[in-house]
Amino acid sequence: MSASLAASLPRPRGVLLAGTLPACIFLVLALVPIMALSGGSYLVSLGSRVMICAIAAVALDLLIGFSALISFGHAAFIGLGAYAVGILSAYGISDALVSLPTSLAVSAAYAFLSGVVCLRTKGVYFIMITLAFGQMAFFTASSLAPFGGDDGLTIAARNTVAGFPLLRSDRVFYYIVLLCLLGTYLFCRALVGSRFGRVVRGAKENAVRMATIGFDVYRFQLATYVIAGALAGLSGFLLANATEFVSPAYMSWQRSGELIVMVLLGGLGSLDGAIIGAAAYLLTEEWLSGVTEHWKVIFGPVLVLIVLFARGGLIGLTRAVVRRFSRG
Amino acid sequence: MSTSLLIVQILNGLQLGVLLFLIAAGLTLVFGVMDFINLAHGVQYMLGAYLAVAFCALTGSFLAALMLALAATLAFGLLLEFAVFRHLYDRDHLDHVIATFGIILFLNHGVKLVWGAAPLSLPIPELFSGSVKLADGLLYPVWRLVVIGSGLVVAVLLYVLVAHTRIGMLVRAGATNAAMVSALGVNIRRLFMIVFGFGAMLAGFAGIMIAPILSVEPGMGDTVLILAFVVIVIGGIGSIRGAFLAALLIGLVDTLGRSFSVDILRLVMAPSPARTVGPAIASMLIYLLMAVVLYVRPTGLFPAKGR
Q1: Interface predicted TM-score (ipTM) of this complex, two decimals
Q2: Closest CA to B99 of A307, A14, A3, A1
Q3: Is residue B5 part of a domain?
Q4: Low-confidence ranges of chain B (pLDDT < 50)
Q5: Does residue A283 belong to any structural domain of this protein?
């Protein structure tokens, strides 16, 4: 408890580190397509996938890290955003000016409706009820027979932007995803630092005290839940455009579990951590699956070891290393 | 015809319910007593099924396979507790989730490495093969009845164990306030270990008993795990009685929903949309039920006292 309180307080010494790390992350991300200039379309598409996941992970960190709301159904919002793109394009509407707002609205609406119910419960019950709503979305999608059902739905082409086929080029798409990630990151950072964010973080430490001061904790948490849902919808919109395919598998509970693992892997309650976690998870997956078909046999124990020995995730680990070296 | 179908489906529902109870009992105890979220509970069930197949091939007798597989799942549960879980009891729930998620990944693919990805099957023991005639024109497989019966027997044994023995008393006390039990001089670590091993063995037992009916394949524990979580959340965490009633409820609702949803929907809508919507509603029925229960009773139907 005291550790998380300390982490949420301003750290004058850590400001330099807190500012440089995200700058480094985004610089590296911006350079990927340039470094991969010579026939590296694989790297570009992998990078897009990592960043799309990172958007959802940052949104989830908003819930888990800053509000202690462990959502086990976050993948549902990604899936809903993706299905909005898929279903619209099945009806011939394939412009981002229509499908992006639809994705965001659909995910936000589902987050609002499920949040109204979910936020009545606490702790493990919250984990399980978000799982329940995730599963409901999953089964609804798999029963959508006109839109592929279990097999999913192929999208004819990527969305146009105001009529221009802007997203068709992988590199341009990459930078658009990067902009979305940057926007999400900055937005979440501003949100966390704002008065709204302080109320939410206060409610994480002690909801009763927050309520006693006079804040309606439920409303603040619901707003956070809806925002995180909408951001996951953005991730879903990009995912559908990246793969040109939507499937119920996007919403499976394993996906939600993976997202939690990503956030934890990076380190809770630090938005850069969520990006690093998503990258570490997907790149390790990519690398190990290249080494052996049975990569999960290696990856599983690695996760266990990280939990046992690297508390605070990768960010916590780097902080500890940096601290040790800076003290000499 | 319709009533006999109803009876068959009710029996199937009971069988699913009993199976879920065997898994949920261990899960709810581990959760209630140790405050530990064990996502890896489902793989214990899968492991039980695989070990039963392996030992049955080795010894040729189902009974011997049952005994050996039970002992092996118990040993494996204790090993996991010793190697990983006991270091995590005083950690966050999230640490539990990520570590046990890692164990799921490892074991799901571990069994693929050892036994291959193709589904295996276990023959029904000869003594219980065939069907029994319940009524005119109503045949029901004996083995499914054996599963229901053995599940009910375990439920009774568990009730006696928890409600009327010293160790059960400690478990109940631990579920209410573990720190206090420890302060009163009980070796809580050993209690945790016993509960954990016992829970793992129950899940393994469920896997062994169901192996002759279902195909034994990697990942078979995942769906069941989610259902078991639904059960313990509806029943109230830490409550065996709640787990039992919720397991039967979920088993019946799920099975009956799947078999009759289309017919019921056809009463109110055209046949073709009913065929589409029916299965979807049937699959989400239990989650809907869970959402409603938690909305009305945020800590489940039978919350353990003191929580």
Answers
A1: 0.78
A2: A307
A3: no
A4: 1, 306-307
A5: no
The verdict on residue B279 lying in a domain is yes
CATH of the domain at B55: 1.10.3470
Binary contact (B287, A303; C-beta < 8 A): no
Tokens at residue A208, please?
A: 């009763």
How far is Cα A275 from Cα A23, in angstroms, rounded to an integer? 12
pLDDT more than 70, % of chain B: 98
Domain that holds residue A42: 32-253
Task: Identify all chain B residues contacting A129, using CB atoms and an 8 Å cutoff.
Answer: 233, 290-291, 294
In a domain, B307, yes or no: no
Partners of B102 on chain A (C-beta within 8 Å) are: 299-304, 307
Q: Could you tell me if residue B9 is inside a domain?
A: no
Domain count, chain A: 1
Of A64, A268, A297, the CB nearest to B106: A297
Q: How do residues A48-99 score in pLDDT, each as one tens digit?
A: 999 999 999 999 999 998 988 999 999 999 999 999 999 999 898 888 899 9
Given a cut of 50, is residue A25 above it in pLDDT?
yes
CA distance linking residue A19 with residue A188, whole number of Å: 15
Give the range of the structural domain holding residue B130, as residue numbers without chain letter: 14-296
Q: How many domains does chain B fold into?
A: 1
pLDDT for B9-67, tens place per residue?
899 999 999 999 999 998 888 887 788 888 889 999 999 999 999 999 898 888 899 99
Q: Are strands B138-141 and B131-135 parallel, antiparallel or unpaired?
A: antiparallel
Question: B284 and A304 in contact by Cβ < 8 A?
Answer: no
Specify if A6 maps to a domain: no
Residue A12: predicted pLDDT: 45
pLDDT of A229: 96
Neighbours of A75 (CB within 10 A): 29
**A153 lies in some domain:** yes
Chain A residues within 8 angstroms (CB to CB) of chain B: 64, 70, 117, 120-125, 127-129, 131-133, 135-136, 139-140, 142-143, 145, 253-254, 257, 260-261, 264-265, 268, 294, 296-297, 299-304, 306-308, 311
Q: What b/e sequence results for B162-182 when a residue is b if at least 16 CB atoms lie within 10 Å of its CB, and e otherwise?
A: beeeeebebbbbbbbebeebe
Of B98, B110, B299, the CB nearest to A264: B98
**B253 interfaces chain A, CB cutoff of 8 Å:** no
* pLDDT band at residue A310 under the 50/70/90 scheme: confident
Instruction: From residue B261, give the alpha-carbon distance in Å to each of A145, B273, B279, B286, B291.
Output: 17, 12, 7, 13, 19
B35 touches chain A (CB under 8 A): no
Contacts of B290 in chain A (CB under 8 A): 128-129, 132
